[in-house]
Amino acid sequence: MPNRVTLGFALMLLAWGSLASGANAQSGKPSPAAPQAPTIRVRSNVVVVPALVKTKSGEAVFALKADDFMLTDNGVRQPLTLEPDTDSEPLALAVIVETGGDGAWRLRDYSDLGPVLDAVIGGVPHRVAVIAFDSAPRLALDFTPDTDTAGQAIASLQAGDSGAAILDALNFAIDILRKQPAEYRRAVLLISETEDGGSRTDLENVLREVDDTNTEIYAVAFSSTGAAVGHEAAKVPRPGGSPYGNQPYAPGGCMAKGSDPDAHGKRSVQALDCASDLLPPLRLVRMAFLAARDGLRRNVPKTVANLTGGEYFVFKNSNTLTHDLLTVSNDVPNYYVLTFSPRSPSAGFHALELKVKDQPHLIVKARNAYWVDNETPHPQHK
Question: Measured between alpha carbons, how far is 49 from 42 in angstroms, rounded to an integer?
């Protein structure tokens, strides 16, 4: 099978390992900034969309075919291919645990995760690393095939400072996963509070990193209670209205200096806003981009899980954590692995929407975004 690399997160990589095999050995350099979209990297012209389909009662739906699905990319329908199950590839898993901020009070709930990790990983060759973070991430345990050792490392974590730099920890995990052998699939398990506190990583760079890697994330999070978490003003899509702020363009048009309050001085973003006023598909993209960026301000774990088709769980105690991780292990074999080659792929952020035809009662969890660089050097799979 041609090498493929996914652009999302989460442990459902267990269900489609060979698609990710080997492609991370191919690396690209960020392209120069383009006026029509944020600059990102791309390693493929084939997009992988893992999807989980359930009934409203929570039962997995089997036996669907490619023709049963309908996928749109920036509002344009795409032809789909359903890949065969490929869940036997080796796995590199990074477990990220918050030890600072509100996470310091939860450490006792992680005392016996070794057996649960075994269930989540399944019977495949694997490597597990443990990353702890407060105001900065650190490698608590380098990659090891011994899940008991990983469980002990998690259980022995000590409380950190008042920081909760979730975005920095995600970037750290993605970086060390990229250095693992190319034949290994990549996955992240994130256990943290919902709001970031103290990361130096830019929100837009995190969005690029989340979807420009073959790593997926499952997230379990508890609500942030700290009062001093700084956020810039949220710009969220308004139902039936503009996805932008309330201020109109200044005299002189949308590209006039300072005329677009949502661009925050960035001319590339301003150009995208102007283009989206003329081209409806770009307005859809801009709405999705702003929604994702706002989600990172409000709930980092939930947003990265949703962007990549992963599952998000609310953390309550050690019992619910075990239950949630066992749910992950049960769901992994039930994922559909859908792929498509974008028609006339434009550079920048792409919004995906996947549905099951004529069955609105079914619940579909699937990757909902990916990125395309300004130039794709050679046809590849990811």
Answer: 15
Query: Which H or E run contains 167?
Result: helix 166-178
* Residue 215 parent element (H or E): strand 215-222
Are β-strands 81-83 and 185-193 bridged in parallel, bridged antiparallel, or unpaired? unpaired
Tens digits of residue pLDDT in 295-334: 888 899 998 888 877 789 999 888 899 999 998 888 877 8
Round to whole Å and give the CA distance between 65 and 60. Answer: 14
265 touches 259 (CB < 8 A) = no
Euclidean distance between CA atoms 236 and 286, whole angstroms: 10
Distance CA 2, CA 382 (A): 9
Read off the pTM.
0.69
Q: Which fold has domain 91-230+300-332?
A: Rossmann fold (3.40.50)
Listed by start position, the domains of the chain span 91-230+300-332
Structure-token match 């830019």, residue found = 202
Pair 214, 5: CB distance under 8 Å: yes
Collect all residues with Cβ–Cβ distance below 8 Å to 275 and sequence separation of at least 6. 36, 282
pLDDT digits (tens, 9 = 90+) for 360-376: 899 998 888 887 765 54
Using CA atoms, how far apart are residues 291 and 239, in angstroms rounded to an integer? 12
Please name the residue that has the structure tokens 């590209």. Answer: 255
DSSP 65: -
